[in-house]
Design goal:
Length: 352
């Protein structure tokens, strides 16, 4: 699944891979899009599934950059030299950047089309539409826990019944605070605003058994090796590891649904071309389904989910059984306002 967002924020290695499109796109500003995403195999799947097919019909050249770098977006907009086109971001950034004038407002017809094509309205913003979904799940080493395994966050925090280290993403919006509060008895519909003091108190109760990871590779390695036989995980990476033969599995009960969005930085010269692609993306559930199969990220629209092969669909947040057992959607409007303060507290807590 995704590479660490902390590294992405820190720096961006300029990767400019031009994909020649049928029709002889010149690569000039009027016939190219620079797509910026988190990189790796997931970016390849996304571009191959729903950028390249569109580009081939339009004679457009797709250029790529990775990973997404929020500081770079801000610097480009402020300098009036925007080279980043459609860009994959987290919803909390989309929220604050839209309010701060760093992103283009989407045309109303795109917002209307998103709703009409089955995209969840609570994942649509004035400057952004969702591009994928995933869940924070309870992932377990199926060799260590060949019998019973934790099926709730309360059980995940029960180190006496289920001994072993617990892995968490070292990132404030990575679901650990929501999980801690659910484990402490907070009802899913009463999670937000998060009681951060209460969450830290619950995390204190297992702090000696917590190990942190920064990347998806670290996450799957610590789980598969047994270093941390229980991990709050990115659902798709666990399924991929399982397919590769690792003794790991997802527990979907009380999963926390997350998503990424696509935005266009303010002042991008080819914004109209980017908007044209967005319309095509929303109108093409088959392309979204192809991406879900290749990347193990859930598609943006419910219509696309029905087109995903069943063996993959069962490992996506929108699959009916997984959706019914979910603890809900991560509230990125909350995180847009509270990310900096909670991050500062988290870093200090880890350093103690």
């Amino acid at each position: 699944m995704k590479t660490t967002r902390l590294l992405a924020i820190a720096s961006a290695a300029g990767l400019a891979v031009a994909l020649s499109a049928c029709g002889g796109g010149s690569g000039a500003s009027d016939s190219s899009l620079t797509v910026t995403m988190w990189g790796g195999a997931a970016q390849k799947a996304h571009v191959d599934s729903y950028f390249t097919p569109w580009a081939k019909t339009k004679g457009v050249t797709i250029k790529q950059d990775s990973p997404t770098d929020y500081a770079k977006i801000k610097a480009q907009v402020e300098a009036g030299k925007v080279t980043s086109g459609p860009t994959e971001v987290e919803p909390n950034f989309a929220n604050t950047a839209c309010e701060g004038g760093l992103l283009e407002k989407l045309p109303q017809d795109i917002l209307d089309k998103a709703k009409a094509t089955g995209v969840a309205e609570n994942q649509i913003g004035p400057c952004a539409i969702p591009i994928l979904q995933y869940s924070f799940t309870i992932a377990y080493n199926s060799k260590t826990f060949s019998g019973a395994h934790p099926t709730t966050w309360a059980e995940f925090f029960d180190t006496q019944r289920f001994p072993g280290k617990r892995g968490f993403w070292k990132y404030a919006t990575g679901g650990m605070f929501e999980a801690a509060l659910l484990a402490d008895g907070v009802k899913p519909d009463q999670l937000y605003p998060l009681d951060i003091d209460r969450a830290f108190k619950k995390l204190d109760s297992i702090k000696r058994d917590i190990v942190f990871f920064d990347t998806g590779d670290q996450m799957t390695q610590m789980l598969a090796s047994g270093e941390a036989p229980l991990v709050q995980a990115w659902s798709g990476r666990i399924f991929q590891a399982q397919q590769a033969g690792e003794k790991v599995a997802n527990e979907w009960k009380e999963n926390l649904v997350s998503y990424d969005q696509i935005v266009v930085p303010k002042g991008y010269p080819n914004k109209d071309l980017a908007f044209e692609w967005m319309r095509w993306f929303l109108d093409n559930p088959k392309a979204q389904a192809a991406d879900a199969e290749a990347s193990i990220y859930g598609p943006a629209s419910a219509k696309a989910l029905d087109l995903v092969p069943e063996n993959v669909r069962k490992e996506l947040p929108g699959f009916p059984a997984n959706a019914q057992s979910s603890a809900g959607l991560v509230d990125y409007a909350y995180w847009a306002k509270n990310y900096d303060g909670v991050t500062e507290r988290l870093n200090a807590w880890i350093a103690k």
